[in-house]
Recover the amino acids of this structure.
């Protein structure tokens, strides 16, 4: 028998969540930017954006920061390289007296024939970092906490992973009825940053503000998560650098290392978080679903809202193909990187880091301290009544449009164009098919006058 709380929740209409959302004064931050000088006004990006956050107006793309979830799809698809990720340059390490690198597990999948992660970690120190702390180690802690939390809260099954910021933001703006199914545990990188800072203070004797904790990221969504964290008031991370920038610095340094330092503190479970299915694998259960790629994620969430899944405990979703190894700030083909990661994990111990009673991080310290709130960015009006009225207008306009969803008007679909028209951001003759009909009609009337 289906749990009543879960059923009622899933069938709640988004308008029921409207009141609290309207009072939320959150300012959206995005890490995907547009270079208008490089943009040619093609429509490739508008067709791939999962939240229809992009329009082409006056031959240039425009990104809506309210709708953008920083998944990086527009960066992948843009042949003109007009979509750019924002992140910190490597010289950010000069801003601090003591720096700690937080390498994402996906970093290891970028290198050929890597059989010891200590080589990468030692090279990071030689690159200029004073210390390293593997995010994979905290991933193992999160796996442990997740197993316990999921077991104790069966009434909220299935839980949805919150490790991918783009997925969390997608749910926040598009699937409000699923918010309560988000696993309320901080992502591994935040726990790693907190532990790394504590260890750095003990090692260096410096105050916390002199220490820089720098995440080496596979994607721009992690930059957004640092600037505008979800589930917490303030991030523990000071800066985010790109794997692709670090990669070129590490390669020559790695070749010079004969005897690497013993720095690894993550095992198979932690390193596995870098690929799709890795997080779910750490839960030691077969009752899960794992999907990657933003289009697949969208479909899974739609089906979940429609209650097409039965008796699942956990759903792992990654916006990038292959998981984090597919992020736009990486250098390797995600499928090849996944093979490399699986080979690397093969002879690793299952886990090196566990949450023990004497650890500084208590289970309650790893939980969210701030609720995720629905953001009604797709609503047409400032009230339910106004939105319903505008939806009726949208329906009327859409019926007059050809329904081809060609994108030539600068909007991804005819419905999107109709919404833009109602919002005063476009006009019907932006549709080239209606414009052609109008021109033909006008030319016919002129011909009659001439006769």
């Amino acid at each position: 028998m289906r749990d009543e709380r879960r059923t009622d929740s899933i069938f709640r209409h988004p308008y029921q969540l409207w009141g609290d959302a309207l009072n939320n004064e959150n300012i959206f931050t995005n890490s995907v930017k547009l270079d208008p000088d490089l943009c040619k006004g093609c429509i490739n990006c508008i067709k791939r954006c999962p939240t229809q956050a992009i329009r082409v107006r006056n031959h240039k793309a425009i990104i809506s920061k309210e709708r953008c979830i920083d998944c990086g799809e527009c960066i992948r698809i843009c042949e003109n390289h007009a979509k750019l990720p924002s992140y910190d340059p490597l010289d950010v390490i000069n801003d601090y007296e003591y720096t700690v690198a937080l390498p994402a597990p996906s970093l290891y999948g970028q290198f050929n024939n890597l059989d010891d992660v200590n080589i990468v970690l030692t090279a990071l120190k030689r690159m200029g970092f004073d210390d390293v702390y593997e995010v994979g180690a905290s991933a193992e802690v999160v796996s442990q906490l997740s197993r316990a939390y999921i077991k104790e809260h069966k009434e909220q099954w299935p839980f949805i992973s919150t490790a991918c910021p783009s997925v969390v933001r997608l749910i926040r703006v598009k699937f409000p009825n699923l918010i309560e199914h988000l696993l309320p545990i901080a992502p591994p990188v935040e726990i790693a940053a907190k532990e790394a800072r504590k260890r750095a203070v003990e090692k260096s004797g410096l105050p916390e503000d002199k220490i820089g904790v720098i995440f080496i990221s596979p994607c721009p969504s992690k930059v957004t998560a640092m600037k505008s964290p979800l589930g917490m008031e303030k991030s523990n991370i000071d800066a985010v650098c790109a794997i692709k920038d670090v990669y070129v610095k590490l390669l020559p340094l790695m070749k010079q290392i004969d005897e690497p330092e013993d720095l690894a503190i993550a095992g198979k479970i932690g390193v596995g978080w870098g690929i799709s299915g890795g997080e779910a694998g750490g839960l030691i259960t077969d009752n899960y679903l794992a999907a990657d790629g933003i289009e697949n994620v969208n479909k899974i969430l739609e089906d979940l809202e429609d209650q097409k899944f039965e008796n699942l405990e956990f759903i792992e979703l990654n916006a990038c193909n292959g998981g984090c190894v597919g992020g736009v700030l990486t250098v390797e083909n995600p499928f090849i990187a996944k093979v490399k990661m699986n080979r690397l994990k093969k002879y690793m111990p299952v886990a090196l880091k566990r949450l023990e009673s004497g650890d500084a991080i208590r289970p309650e310290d790893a939980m969210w301290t701030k609720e995720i709130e629905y953001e009604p960015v797709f609503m047409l009006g400032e009230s339910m009544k106004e939105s319903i009225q505008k939806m009726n207008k949208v329906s009327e306009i859409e019926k007059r449009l050809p329904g081809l969803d060609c994108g030539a008007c600068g909007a991804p679909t005819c419905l999107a164009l109709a919404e833009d028209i109602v919002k005063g951001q476009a006009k019907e003759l932006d549709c080239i098919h209606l414009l052609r009909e109008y021109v033909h009609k006008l030319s016919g009337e002129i011909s009659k006058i001439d006769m």
In short: The two ends are 77 Å apart (CA to CA).
